[in-house]
Amino acid sequence: MLLVPRSYLTALILAGLCIPPTLQAADPPKGTALPEVIPDDAMPPKKLPKLSEVMSIAREYFTNRKGYESGDLLTSNDVKPLFRELQQAGWKVKAEKVILSRMHTNSDFLASQLSTPKGVKFMRKIAKMPGGYDRLDHLLKMPYGKRRIKEFIDSPGGYTMIEYMTTTQGGKNLGKYLSQTKTGKGFNQPTDMIYTQTELLQVIQETYQAENNPKGRRK
After folding, report:
1. Is the CA virtual torsion 171, 157, 135, 125 positive or negative?
2. Are 118 and 152 in contact (CB under 8 A)?
3. What average pLDDT score do residues 114-129 get?
4. 3 exposure class (CB count in 10 Å sphere: 0-12, 13-18, 19+)
5. Looking at the whole model, is its pTM more than 0.90?
6. Residue 56, C-beta contacts closer than 8 angstroms, at least 6 positions apart
7. Would you kindly state where each structural domain of the chain is located, as residue ranges?
8. Share of the chain above pLDDT 90, in %
9. Which residues have CB under 8 Å from 25's CB, separation 6+?
10. Are 162 and 136 in contact (CB under 8 A)?
11. How many whole angstroms from its chain centre is CA 148?
């Protein structure tokens, strides 16, 4: 249960997005290069694995990740080795670059903020909220959005701002208002980004069926 009036939350969020801070959060430095794709001539030909095997490889990949919990934000750096495992198993994913482009990188502002101790606690709160990550991405596009997100993370109850946006009528009304601004269009709508294991597994399944079985019949 939220401990502050909803009208106060609305006013606070609007003020935070419109009033410039004295110091704007800087973008983090770029990360290191991702591993290269394994050349086809470096591997002996293999039979295409069944969809069930592909999904098993993907699920096992996440099971073995130290410190990872289902619902945590995934980055392209996190999952690129998974595509190498799938390639070694016999499926070279043609849409790999497209899929990775729909994910944050380790050096992105959002991923770097959510990897700090406070960020992890915040992340695991908003991961349980419908569209929690989407709202953060929408906020990133708004003036001073980075500053506001950092403040949410640093505040013990900062996650309640995202809870308000995603689970209350007042929050939805706020989103409609922000959608009318130049940088807030579609604020209540999901983005095209891939954030979690569940979303990635769904994309992998759909991609397998599209690339290897256009009619959509499982093998």
Report:
1. negative
2. no
3. 97
4. exposed
5. no
6. none
7. 47-103+194-212, 106-193
8. 74
9. 109, 146, 147, 150
10. yes
11. 18
pLDDT 10s digits, 133-186: 999 999 999 999 999 999 999 999 999 999 999 999 999 999 999 999 999 999
Instruction: Report the 10 Å Cβ neighbour count for 36.
Output: 8
For 94-99, the CB contacts below 8 A with 24+ separation are 94/211, 95/207, 95/210, 95/211, 96/37, 99/194, 99/200, 99/203, 99/204, 99/207
At residue 75, φ and ψ (nearest 5 deg) are: -115, 165
